[in-house]
Amino acid sequence: MLPFYLFILMLINLVPLLYFDLYPLNNYMEIFKTICSLLFLSIAISSHRISPHNKKYFYLIFIGLVFSSLGDVFLAFNIGWNLFYYGFICFVLAHIFFIFGFSYLKGISKWDFGLFLIIFTPSIIFLLNKKGFNYQEMQLIVCLYAIIITFMLCKALSLFKIRKDNPIGTTLVILGTIFFFISDYILVFVIYYNNCSPYMGTLNLIIYYLGQGFLALSFIKSFKKK
Q1: Torsion of CA 168, 165, 154, 105, to 10 degrees
Q2: pLDDT per residue as tens digits for the range 83-123
Q3: Number of C-alpha atoms within 13 angstroms, CB side, residue 27?
């Protein structure tokens, strides 16, 4: 089916992206990064066409994927701090729309906040206290971003309660969101950790695009309308 062919094509395109990320040449890295982003949007559209139900949920998650792709482009062609901030804002909006989408399927409950504290507390303590990080004046932004991405992860995990209605879609959503969360966590090391290995950036790209691809593929099995 077309979504799976596009997913494979994205993985193939990821190979030269990883190469040019490690060994920059002209603007090839930026070009392949943009192509990967366009491909996961294409995966989402083609998957939804196979199972075109629950359009409100699709629009919420797809808008999130669009903001992710815009964030990719801004960061790829980043020249100075302005585009970095635009990319940061796009990713914040992406996470917010994902939260809206997951909350549409499974409303927010006290258990979400309990799980949030369990995941967020040790994560932020580690990031703020581990030696080697140089946040300069960005600590507050890192904390706010961590709050958003952690709550997004908690809302995705809450969908486990409705897995019987759509086991394939639920598994892909949860897996994709976990990968997205991990990629953001790694990105903190890439941006702020002193002497970070360049291979951390490679790992970040692999996990990030797999996560976006799984989220896009999840539309192949629609969730029931609320």
Answers
A1: 120
A2: 778 888 999 999 999 999 999 999 888 999 999 999 999 99
A3: 10
